[in-house]
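Blinded run. Sample ID left blank on purpose so nobody reads anything into the name before looking at the predicted structure. Input follows.
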Amino acid sequence: MTNSPVFPSSLRDFRQNTLAGLTTAFALVPECIAFALVAQLNPLMGLYGAFFICTITALFGGRPGMISGAAGSMAVVIVALVAQHGAQYFLATVLLSGVVMVLFGALRLGKLVRMVPHPVMLGFVNGLAIVIALAQLEHFRHNTPAGPVWLQGMPLAIMLGLTFLTMLITWLLPRVTKAVPPALVAILGVGLLVQLTGLHTPTLGDMARIAGGLPLWHFPEVPMNLETLRIIAPYAVLMAIVGLLETLLTFNLTDEITATRGQPNRECLALGAANVVSGLFGGMGGCAMIGQTMINLGSGGRSRLSGVVAGVMILMFILFLSPAIERIPLAALAGVMFVVAQETFAWGSLRVLGKVPKNDAIVIVAVTIITVFTDLAVAVLCGIVIAALNFAWEHAREIRADVVDNADGSRTYLPHGTLFFASSAHFLELFDPQRDPQKVVLDCRYVRLADHSAIAAVQTLSERYARAGKELRLESLSRRCQVLLQRAGIA
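Blinded prediction complete.
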């Protein structure tokens, strides 16, 4: 594999990455506003966070083409903190979570993502695709004194028609030309149609006003004491875990789509630094965003330029272009995100559910469902635990032993497999101290002692033979196994 391009090498690539970044910026705005509102924060905090995090990770991260911003998975984590302690404690939490991410990258722990099984990755992708699609349904509701209600009648018909038109343009335009990103043409085309025909439909400006000034440096106004640390530390660690998980899983997906290999530890360092800067300038925390990354990649964004353009355009929207951006129909943005959800979902995983091992199928379905109904961190953790337990169970069943009766009347057991916590009970069942001859040899050339449970099993076996008045001798131990037994005090 080759590394992704850092900056475009030709005028065509430059144009392609610039347009991809512009398209992604349009998709970032409503998401970041929505996530800020979910966290009960000023929408500008979400946009400032998107600007800093997207731009810094694009410039210094380890995965060109991947888009980061103010993410909903991290916003959900801090709703209770904002409600109880306010925005200043939230900004302090963003700062601390950034420091945790930097430490994670500095300790080179990004490679731990390799331990995430492929079925968990499929469940993660499918779950987030469903979450992306469900999130768009909020655009089909409007606020009333009695609370949010679904659109009805003509407003609903217009919204559905514009959404379907956007999706149709996004699907069909690549068959005509690939010179421009289809999502960009769909958003601008539907927006122009609404303006020319005077159709009444919800727009981005109905969500929030995005006009503002330059973000200003502002250290969080919180007491610098242990009590503050006690309040923000649990939220900061949880934000860091969720952000790193989503980033590294999206990182893997981007590697797979682009057939290139990035640098996960560098991405963690850049993401942490971006969160620190965002917190110091009044922005939300964030991480990689799979939907916007898919839009960027689908629009031809492969270099750092696309991410930088997306981030800088967010700031331009705030400073200069808010009147125009606020007129974009929400139906156009929803249509693009519905297409993203459809393209993100691993439809092939449905076809293989009946062909892969049952346990892998359970992992795919479980991670998908848990991602939709809880959050990403819980889903991935559950998926890894299920996969690990399945792995342990399968390997525990594989341990066996050949039994050889020697000419001198002794008996040799020749076990095969890995002796560890899950296989130790089955290992002990392979022996019969009461019926075995006076001398028994345990030949360890084909068995591996993996953990303390393995040592305990060998010790238990030795004690059983000793109580039966018989001798157990170990032979052909590897150097590693000898060291393990010596450390445990077993001769």
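Unblinding after everyone has recorded impressions. The radius of gyration is 28 Å.
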